[in-house]
């Protein structure tokens, strides 16, 4: 699939100071957002953090109280059908016509953007092939599995070859195979020139496919950058795990006393240490354990994951 | 817009609720009406009254007896206007046997002065008889009394001016024979009472068809479904989408109502005054009115979902049908009273307007009343579509 080119230096999406209130609830609190051409931009956040709200505001589906939104360098407005025509949307829910077949559905959505019937036929064929639904073209959505229905949802959003595509949690409730297929497809779209805004609360997905990531919480942008940049923003720099059996008295306290160690925990014969970023965390910890006469089993060290970043920045309390 | 139209048509014809309410409902109700009213249609036919005439062997020699015999023979002659099923018996006893067995409803005896005497069964009274038997008794009494009155009149004429009897015209004048009942046609078609019910059903079915318009539009509304939200952020303008949805719903409604019309005309035999072509035009225009009503409800800026909107339309249809007289005699009287006291209600109630459109076609020789109602339907449809458009073109929502 090929995509229309935009000016290389421009942000495809540029949002500044976006505020959206539902009476007393501030859903978006002066949110700034920039998405560069050709990247997969991840929007991470817990439930109710404002991910879908910001997309709906960008698409002008929701009114907002303050802020500016530009798409392709031009101000976005409800009647900017020329800009909307360059955008594709894959909503969180599978939003298709239950009464139409797979092929009819893709054609119906493609027709909202492409008038020429012959060109549309080609685009529909390509979109169905892209998501691998060729064998199901005559099926109605009700006959499709959850994963296939998600793929149909995607085909309906990309058939008209949009330059900018919003994926709103497209992998919710799908099996690992379908998830891998969907993520591969999104990367292929990026490789073919599309710009993608991807929302999810599956950290590993976002880390896997997104070039830059914004973590938002309570309507605010908490952090933004590449996965590595985000990981460097938190105090956690390394996680050490060791199978140690019983620990002699005082060992845990000595470990906690090491510089750069943030916490130490021993349960069921396994020791967990969290440390700030430092080059000698593992050797320092092993020295303490060896000196205490601990018989070591397996020992391994991990850098922090995006999940750690997310939990540190957004906290661990339960959300809606 | 063309694709929106096709999508609308395809999705509507595959929606079970549309099949049930827009297509099957009028057909099922028509079939029920056909069954209910089958008795009413045959009640208008009068079967010959079985009666016996006690005719002595030598009656031909008796001029007085012969006159009455000629009368009843004439009334028993085969034909569409045959009134009596006459059996001749020799004696009153034979007639009594037949009467007791129920083979005849009564018998005539001719007295010596030539006057007929009617006998009916002893238990055969007006109070106990069913409707048909009471009619039969009245027929027999009328035959006998008319003969007696005419005979007395002629005897009086003979006494006063016997020469007048030589003039057949004068005799006819005296007997009032030439004073026939003349059928005056003041309506375009011969009125049939049951037509009112069928037209009211057509009105209700038309409003039921508004479900198609509601569904087509509501599924394009962001506040109603995720599908609507997805369509709303597309590159096609909202009014273009509304036009496609409404046109599709109109096409589906028109086809469904045309099938209902065909069933009424061809199977139920409902009379449309020989103006079937114009009736089809009315079906299309009334379907437009229904679609516009459905589109208006579908585009209402409510947080209500599809079921709630469907409920609103169903309730509206049922209530408005009451004032169109669908639910029987009492409702008919209510509709008539309302039409007399508040005539404007007939023009704003879509069900009544649809009924009246078909009445105008059926009753009036002039097409002006029909055209006026068609114009009212179109005007109503345009007004409703304007409201729907105003609500539908809204793009940004406070909540979703």
Strand content of chain A: 25-35%
Largest interface: A-B, 35 and 29 residues
Low-confidence stretches of chain B: 124-129, 177-181
The total of helices of chain A stands at 11
Query: What composes the largest sheet of chain A?
Result: 6 strands, mixed
Query: Can you give the helix content of chain B as a percent range?
Result: 55-70%
Structural class of chain B: mainly alpha
The order of strands across the largest sheet of chain B is 2-1-3-4
How far apart, in Å, are the first and last alpha carbons of chain A?
Answer: 39 Å
Q: What is the helix tally of chain B?
A: 16
- Biggest sheet architecture of chain B: 4 strands, mixed
Architecture overview:
- The complex is a heterodimer of chains A (320) and B (400).
- With 320 residues, chain A is an alpha/beta fold.
- Chain A is built from 11 helices and 14 strands.
- In chain A, the strands form 3 sheets. Chain A has a 6-stranded mixed beta sheet, sandwiched between helices. In chain A, strands 2-1-4-5 form a 4-stranded antiparallel beta sheet, with helices on one face. In chain A, strands 12-13-11-14 form a 4-stranded antiparallel beta sheet, with helices on one face.
- In chain A, helix 3 (102-110) packs parallel to helix 5.
- The radius of gyration of chain A is 24 Å and the shape is elongated.
- Residues 1-9 of chain A have low confidence and may be disordered.
- Chain B is mostly helical and 400 residues long.
- Chain B contains 16 helices and 4 strands.
- Chain B has helices at residues 2-13, 16-42, 63-75, 92-101, 131-160, 168-175, 193-208, 210-218, 226-232, 238-267, 276-298, 306-322, 329-341, 345-348, 350-363, 368-392; strands at residues 49-54, 84-89, 106-110, 116-119.
- Chain B has a 4-stranded mixed beta sheet, sandwiched between helices.
- The longest helix of chain B has 30 residues, at 131-160.
- The radius of gyration of chain B is 32 Å and the shape is elongated.
- Mean pLDDT of chain B is 82; it is low at 124-129 and 177-181.
- The A-B interface holds A 22, 56, 59-63, 78-79, 81-82, 84-87, 89, 91-97, 99-100, 104, 107-109, 111-113, 156-157, 160 and B 3-4, 7, 10-12, 14-15, 219, 222, 225-227, 229-237, 241, 395-400.
